Write a sequence for this structure.
């Protein structure tokens, strides 16, 4: 009785393919195909989780799609991975601007 080894749930560290995903993602981003770019940048973060650049690029794509919450989350992850980035102040300002633009969740009072 032969048992197949179970597929690992852990992401595979693959910097070469991560860089290729970023390259292709940038191509899609320049063409305005943000969904395809997001797919590639997300794949790059899966293949190389400590790589900061795809997180920033994800933020830019989500911002272009007006998905401010996901843009903020991506930018925050970028700063978490690379806290001393040269553009950290600029990214922090983008986060603030996006958070200011997003209306707070109103808690509606319940009426009897």
């Amino acid at each position: 009785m032969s048992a197949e080894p179970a597929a690992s749930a852990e992401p595979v560290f693959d910097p070469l393919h991560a860089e290729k995903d970023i390259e292709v993602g940038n191509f899609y981003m320049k063409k305005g195909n943000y969904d395809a770019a997001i797919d590639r940048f997300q794949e790059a973060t899966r293949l190389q989780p400590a790589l900061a650049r795809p997180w920033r690029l994800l933020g830019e794509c989500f911002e272009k799609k007006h998905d401010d919450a996901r843009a903020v989350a991506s930018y925050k992850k970028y700063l978490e991975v690379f806290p001393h980035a040269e553009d950290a102040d600029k990214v922090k300002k983008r986060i603030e601007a996006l958070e200011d633009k997003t209306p707070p969740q109103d808690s509606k009072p319940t009426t009897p």
Observations:
- The CA atoms of residues 45 and 88 lie 19 Å apart.
- DSSP finds five helices and no strands in the chain.
- Helices lie at 15-31, 34-47, 53-64, 68-81, 88-101.
